[in-house]
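Posted in: Structural Biology > Protein-Ligand Complexes

Title: Requesting predicted complex, zinc ion in pocket

I'd be grateful if someone could produce the C-alpha cells for the following input. Sequence and ligand are given below.
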Amino acid sequence: MEDCIFCKIANGEIPTEYVYEDELVAAFNDISPVAPVHILIVPKAHISSALELDDSNKDVVGHIFTVASKLARDKGFAENGFRLVNNCGRDGGQTVQHLHFHLLAGRNLEWPPG
Ligand code: AMP
Ligand code: ZN
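-- Reply #1 --
Done. Output follows.
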C-alpha cells in the first residue's frame, strides 16, 4: 500500500536490517525500543490492523507466532520468556496502520500494561 511505512520496510523500499525474513513476513528492530529486545514482526502484505483479519489472510498470524518462537530460541530468550503484543486501534495504542506484533524480551515485563 502506498505511503505505508511498514509496507515499504517489509518490501525492501526502505533499506532495513532484518532480524528475520521469509516469503510472508519481515522482522526488524523497533526504532524506539522499550525493552532490551524489541523486534517488530510484520506481514509483507498490507493488513491495516487485527480488525482486517479474515479467513483469507488469518494464517499469517499463526506464522508470526512460530517466527517469534524461533527468534526466542535462536536469540536465547526462550527460557526466560517474552511477550508478543498486537496493539489495535486508538485505545489499543496502535500508531502504525499496518498489522505488526511487538516481540519484547530481556527484562521482567510488567502486567497489567499501562
Ligand atoms: P504501535 O504503537 O503498536 O502501532 O507500534 C508502532 C511501533 O513502530 C512503535 O513501537 C514505533 O517505535 C515503531 N516504528 C515506527 N516507525 C518505525 C521505523 N521506521 N522503523 C522501526 N520501527 C518503527
Ligand atoms: Zn502496509
